From TrEMBL:
<keyword id="KW-0812">Transmembrane</keyword>
<comment type="similarity">
    <text>Belongs to the CitM (TC 2.A.11) transporter family.</text>
</comment>
<feature type="transmembrane region" description="Helical">
    <location>
        <begin position="354"/>
        <end position="376"/>
    </location>
</feature>
<keyword id="KW-1133">Transmembrane helix</keyword>
<keyword id="KW-0059">Arsenical resistance</keyword>
<dbReference type="Pfam" id="PF03600">
    <property type="entry name" value="CitMHS"/>
</dbReference>
<dbReference type="InterPro" id="IPR004680">
    <property type="entry name" value="Cit_transptr-like_dom"/>
</dbReference>
<feature type="transmembrane region" description="Helical">
    <location>
        <begin position="243"/>
        <end position="264"/>
    </location>
</feature>
<feature type="transmembrane region" description="Helical">
    <location>
        <begin position="284"/>
        <end position="307"/>
    </location>
</feature>
<feature type="transmembrane region" description="Helical">
    <location>
        <begin position="36"/>
        <end position="59"/>
    </location>
</feature>
<keyword id="KW-1003">Cell membrane</keyword>
<comment type="similarity">
    <text>Belongs to the ArsB family.</text>
</comment>
<feature type="transmembrane region" description="Helical">
    <location>
        <begin position="153"/>
        <end position="175"/>
    </location>
</feature>
<keyword id="KW-0472">Membrane</keyword>
<protein>
    <submittedName>
        <fullName>Arsenite efflux transporter membrane subunit ArsB</fullName>
    </submittedName>
</protein>
<dbReference type="InterPro" id="IPR000802">
    <property type="entry name" value="Arsenical_pump_ArsB"/>
</dbReference>
<feature type="domain" description="Citrate transporter-like">
    <location>
        <begin position="9"/>
        <end position="334"/>
    </location>
</feature>
């Protein structure tokens, strides 16, 4: 991703120097991008440090106790944890930090890891429709939706998001209903060495979650939480504060992508896409379908950035979000979260072939996108 990001930055800089991307358009792109990228950095630091303090492991172990030895109950609680983590801490956090925790929980319980692994990555994508902070695409769309913060976003996409999440859970259950039967022996909650650090991190997370919903600029509470956690770790565990906490590759990739898409938009190459908005209600389905196809062809973020200029209303923009958020379940590169998830599986020694992933995703993605789009059409 760093190499691709570097190439994108070079291409964007070339477009700026040659005049393909006017300076005014580049400045407008920067004004739009910096709050989003700052949020990504802050929430990544928060999630990494919270994991370092043992917060996710303790939560997962407590869910195992709450399941009372039932595999189906453990799976339902995993669904709940994946949805909450995705909604408030973003899909990439779920893919990177929750996946190994869920796999460890399945291993200790002695149950098949495949249903829990697929549940994590699918919900990391489809549940990212729930809140603006759940996905980078949502944050990018928020300023064009003409809605007031998270409340306005939820009023428009809340029901489709719930529908997409419910449809995902339903498909997952149909696929793995036999493996989710039976009982297991719950493992004890792991001991956390630095209880003070654990309590401080847990308190900051609990305070951050509602602030991300109610504050109009989510980067503000995310940055405050990141600074508070950094200061806490500087006092109690300074060795955890490493250069790698910052997602440099993602920043380079996203920054270069903003520049390149800005250049493409300024050149007029995207003008024909505007015809998608000329067909009334059908355009909602057109944007949802185009978003899903685009995400699986070139990745959800560039797919969104390329199609977004053609949207003409909050409804068509919401339909595009459904496509690029709930649709990237087929190809491995459809979302960064999927690639990060698979790398975690490899690191953990869990085999999950891409052929199987593509097959089940090709069946599930159209149904999930259609269910959410139908809800959007009916409620709008």
């Amino acid at each position: 991703m760093a190499w691709i990001g570097g190439a994108l930055v070079l291409a964007g800089a070339t477009a700026l120097v040659t005049g393909v991307l006017p300076a005014a358009d580049a400045a407008a792109t920067f004004d739009r991008a910096w709050p989003v990228l700052l949020f990504v950095v802050a929430i990544t630091v928060v999630a990494q440090l919270a994991a370092e303090a043992g917060v996710f492991e303790v939560v997962a172990a407590r869910l195992g106790v709450l399941a009372r030895g039932r595999v189906f109950g453990l799976w339902l609680l995993t669904v709940l944890l994946a949805v909450v983590c995705t909604a408030f801490l973003s899909l990439d956090t779920t893919a990177v930090l929750l996946t190994p925790v869920v796999l460890a929980l399945a291993r200790v319980a002695g149950v098949a890891p495949a249903p829990f692994a697929l549940t994590t990555v699918w919900l990391a994508n489809t549940a990212s429709l729930l809140l603006p902070v759940s996905n980078l695409t949502n944050l990018l769309a928020l300023d064009r939706m003409n809605v007031r913060g998270a409340a306005g976003f939820v009023s428009l996409l809340g029901l489709p998001a719930v529908c997409a999440t419910a449809a995902t859970v339903g498909v997952l259950w149909l696929l793995h209903r036999r493996e989710l039967r039976g009982r297991f022996r719950a493992s004890p909650v792991p001991y956390v060495g630095d209880q003070t650090l654990f309590r401080i991190c847990s308190s900051i997370l609990l305070l951050l979650i509602p602030l991300l919903v109610v504050m109009p600029a989510p980067w503000v509470p995310a940055c405050l939480a990141a600074l508070a956690l950094t200061a806490t770790f500087a006092l109690r565990r300074p060795e955890a504060l490493q250069f790698g906490l910052i997602p440099w590759s993602l920043l380079l990739f996203a920054g270069g992508l903003f520049l390149v898409v800005g250049a493409v938009e300024a050149s007029g190459l995207l003008d024909p896409i505007g015809r998608l908005s000329e067909h009334g209600t059908a355009s909602v389905w057109a944007f949802a379908g185009a978003g899903a196809v685009g995400a699986n062809l070139v990745n959800n973020l560039p797919g969104f950035l390329l199609l977004e200029p053609a949207t003409t209303s909050p409804i068509t923009l919401a339909a595009l979000l459904i496509g690029v958020n709930a649709g990237p379940l087929v190809t491995p590169w459809a979302s960064l979260a999927t690639l990060l998830w698979h790398q975690r599986l490899v690191d953990d020694g869990v085999e999950f072939g891409w052929r199987r992933y593509v097959f089940v995703g090709a069946v599930a993605a159209p149904a999930i996108v259609a269910a959410a789009t139908l809800t959007l059409s009916a409620t709008s």
